[in-house]
Amino acid sequence: MALMSISMSNFLIKSPNPQNTHLRFRQGLAIPHKRSFGIGHRTGRILCALIEADGGNLVELFVKGDLRDLKRREALEIPRIKLSRIDLQWVHVLGEGWASPLRGFMRESEFLQTLHFNSLRLDDGSVVNMSVPIVLAIDDKQKQRVGESDRVALVDSNNNTVAILSNIEIYKHNKEERIARTWGTTAPGLPYADEAITNAGHWLIGGDLEVIAPIRYGDGLDRFRLSPAELREEFVRRGADAVFAFQLRNPVHNGHALLMTDTRRRLLEMGYKNPVLLLHPLGGYTKADDVPLSWRMKQHEKVLEDGVLDPETTVVAIFPSPMHYAGPTEVQWHAKARINAGANFYIVGRDPAGMGHPLEKRDLYDADHGKKVLSMAPGLQRLNILPFKVAAYDKTQGKMAFFDPSRPQDFLFISGTKMRTLAKNKESPPDGFMCPGGWKVLVDYYDSLAVPENGKIPEAVPA
Amino acid sequence: MALMSISMSNFLIKSPNPQNTHLRFRQGLAIPHKRSFGIGHRTGRILCALIEADGGNLVELFVKGDLRDLKRREALEIPRIKLSRIDLQWVHVLGEGWASPLRGFMRESEFLQTLHFNSLRLDDGSVVNMSVPIVLAIDDKQKQRVGESDRVALVDSNNNTVAILSNIEIYKHNKEERIARTWGTTAPGLPYADEAITNAGHWLIGGDLEVIAPIRYGDGLDRFRLSPAELREEFVRRGADAVFAFQLRNPVHNGHALLMTDTRRRLLEMGYKNPVLLLHPLGGYTKADDVPLSWRMKQHEKVLEDGVLDPETTVVAIFPSPMHYAGPTEVQWHAKARINAGANFYIVGRDPAGMGHPLEKRDLYDADHGKKVLSMAPGLQRLNILPFKVAAYDKTQGKMAFFDPSRPQDFLFISGTKMRTLAKNKESPPDGFMCPGGWKVLVDYYDSLAVPENGKIPEAVPA
Q1: Which helix (H) or strand (E) holds B205?
Q2: How far apart are the first and last CA of chain A?
Q3: Other C-beta atoms lying within 10 Å of the C-beta of residue A35
Q4: What whole-number percentage of chain A has pLDDT above 70?
Q5: Would an 8 Å CB–CB cutoff place A118 in contact with chain B?
Q6: Residue B368 contacts residue B330 (beta carbons within 8 Å)
Q7: Is A112 on the interface with B (CB under 8 A)?
Q8: Strand, coil or helix: what is A128?
Q9: 3-state secondary structure of A155
Q10: Cβ contacts (< 8 Å) between B183 and chain A: which residues?
Q11: How many CB atoms lie within 10 A of CB A457?
Q12: What is the pTM of this model?
């Protein structure tokens, strides 16, 4: 198939004028089946057509098939570090190149640049965005076991070798400083900090990562876990001349759908011929009261089945990153990772990656800071930021519509709390709020929680 | 006099090869007397010879003499905001261009970039370092008084108009987030936070600053308060072809002197003909247990009088900034401000701008992080960072010398605590630790504290 020769950066500034391109509007599956790929052999071709990965080349850190056994044997000879569930998700993220050009868990220089500057300066002087620390904590005993070794094996909970970390550097894990600089608070109750930092070791170990084999979860959702290289292949296969990414960790309602459809319309108006939506739910660690990934994926499937979104111009895939809930800091990570997957447009909502303050009765972040910080972030200048328009239920039309401030009385804001209460009570939202199939999934989810062991129904979070 | 035509940036990489320069080795005063200058009329010439100010032009925000009365009258017609002592120091800092290219108290976009990126992106896409927020807090009542006005008058404690702030923007002051992102902790007991943030208003007001007249403190030290433009003039007058800055807020002992002398020697070896030292004690707010500015200045004068430092190649001046004690974040500010004053070399010590953790028995920052962060900081690439060599008392030589790890038994580390205890007890340190005149000042200072009102002797901090 023909490849596009133009650069996709800065499209909002300069409208595309594709020359010598023969776009093929192949009707792709909305949800491509996972195929088994060799590593990296296609990226050269794909990168020509889409926005360049950070650092110029998409990093993939998987060991080639014929070397895997060798590496597994090598791993038996070196000190081992057991990975937590979240550590494993970061191995997945690093291995597939979502954090390109990062080639492993951060060493101190990368950690410090991330904390202080939300960006990394590369050897050639260029700057890439990197806002959340991707680090591996070890405790005193593990550090002692590593001793003078310059490499360690990373193993999963069953002691299977997952990866090798080489040219390692061990440095202090100042948890308070890490939390303060990442979240802008040290209040106890930050979900990621509670889960992965507070009780973690006092050392961090960085190095070059070699991942033995692609990470699989065996939860029936692996087919959605497309790597950046696979997504890039899919976008090229569909002849996308713009890719707009929508990060989410909540059910999709018709307000979201309206926004995504409207974004495509705007991109077409700007001169793009085939903008493709990357509907990209986060699949790593989320806090207990978020709707679990499996239920969200069911809901997203229904939304596509019901035709609310066009399967021909939508790719649904899972973003394997754990969630920090670090607001303006984290939204940069969410955007940067999607550049690596080929997206040159990023839709940003109100209070992205935000949550309530753990101790105070207020949102942790100003709802507008995410959008503002994203628009000013180092290394993200070539990504086009599309601020979320506010959608609400228009009673005069009986459907979700963009809020019209000239007639506020006509609009009903259905908050996350309201949606949750309705679904828990098996009540229906107004017609047109969410497609019936999607709504039923949500009702079924809360139904499944009805008689939990402790007798308490977990609280869901606002959409 | 002839001006040098070469750029002074990146001298560590490329040795200078001055062409067509006629350096004049005029014997300048170590401590120049303050002269009265018009505003900005010399900067064009001076900038040619020294490292460029951040953003290309040194900003000076003073109202020209003939317009002052007009501005004072204007100020009577607009809402007033009373400045704290620290606010006034920031007006001083901004007015003289230490924070160039900042033209006033930060608006929200500058505040957010400072907190998240420690740098500002300028309209031309270039990046300057800016690591500490320079902001003005107001409370609800003040905000109400400002109302719809687009400008305010800033007045001192005697209600004299100090400045006018125009095109104002008022935005939320999230103190917790500001403190967490600036200090990497929110522990109570951070001196600057206790003094200037915790009890400050819940709003910040940014805008364009016009300072009516140069800030004077009337404490006998104003002659040392040279602006960046005045320092640049002095360096040019002395024919400096390199300026190396040494930030300090403690008495100078012979270890410091050795370091500064050695730095000059190294710069001469590198091919510079006349490196000049900017010995630049911080003159703004410091915590209660630091040695006060007036005593430090007396001590520094003695050091120069006693010939420990060469007055001909040393300029002693006061840096008007308040102290944050924010370690790796603040050291960037200290370095960046000195670029604006013409310094192209910056000496960085162990744990710069550090202090003990307010609650825990440890240093707040890793002693090496300041140096590391400084070397990687955005916008500071053109500044040459000179890491501090460790000096200690060499018992075999009876003087301060660079520590030789091959014979540790010969060295005596005289900590700040030790120095303080000796001075308090009117004991003498080993010969050669500090010049006798300087030591006497220190003893006199502690003597002056001997019978304070509350009967307690304040603790001094380690040097």
Answers
A1: strand B203-211
A2: 40
A3: 9
A4: 87
A5: yes
A6: no
A7: yes
A8: strand
A9: strand
A10: 180
A11: 12
A12: 0.88
Residues A235-274 pLDDT 10s: 999 999 999 999 999 899 998 889 999 999 999 999 999 9
What tokens were used for A188?
């106890």
**Pair of tokens at residue A460:** 């869901």
Q: Do residues B209 and B104 lie in contact, with contact meaning Cβ atoms separated by under 8 Å?
A: yes
C-alpha distance from residue A322 to each of A59, A84, A285, A380, B111 (Å): 19, 12, 4, 21, 28
pLDDT at A28 over 60: no
Averaged pLDDT, B410-423: 84
B376 touches chain A (CB under 8 A): yes
Instruction: Examine the pLDDT at B46 and tell me if it is beyond 80.
Output: no
A165-183, pLDDT tens digit by residue?
Answer: 999 999 999 999 999 999 9
Report which of residues A419 and A77 the model is more confident about.
Answer: A77
Strands (E), A351-417: 384-387, 391-394, 399-402, 411-412
Alpha-carbon gap, residue B429 to B448, rounded angstroms:
19
Contact partners, residue A263, CB within 8 Å, separation at least 6 = A244, A275, A277, A345, A347, A386
How do residues B116-153 score in pLDDT, each as one tens digit? 999 999 999 999 999 999 999 999 999 999 999 999 99
A10 touches chain B (CB under 8 A): no
Q: What is the CA radius of gyration of chain A?
A: 22
- How would you classify the pairing of strands B203-211 and B137-138? antiparallel
Please report the pLDDT score of residue B415 as a whole number. 75
Predicted confidence at residue B225, as pLDDT, reads 98
DSSP symbols for A77-118: TS-EEEPPHHHHHHHHHHHHTTTTT--SS--HHHHHHHHHHS
Beta bridge pairs of residue A169: A206
Which residues of chain B are within 8 Å of residue A172 when distances are taken between CB atoms?
Answer: 366
Residue A24, pLDDT score: 25
Residue (of A78, A84, A120) closest to A103 by Cα position: A120
Burial degree of B422 (CB within 10 A; 0-12, 13-18, 19+): buried
Rounded Cα distance between A189 and A196, Å, is 12
Minimal Cα distance from A118: which residue of B?
A: B117
Measure CB to CB from residue A117 to each of B177, B372, B378 and give the nearest one.
B378
Nearest to B351, CA basis, from B371, B330, B373, B380: B371
Q: Which residues contact A347 (CB under 8 A, 6 or more apart)?
A: A244, A245, A246, A247, A259, A260, A263, A386, A388
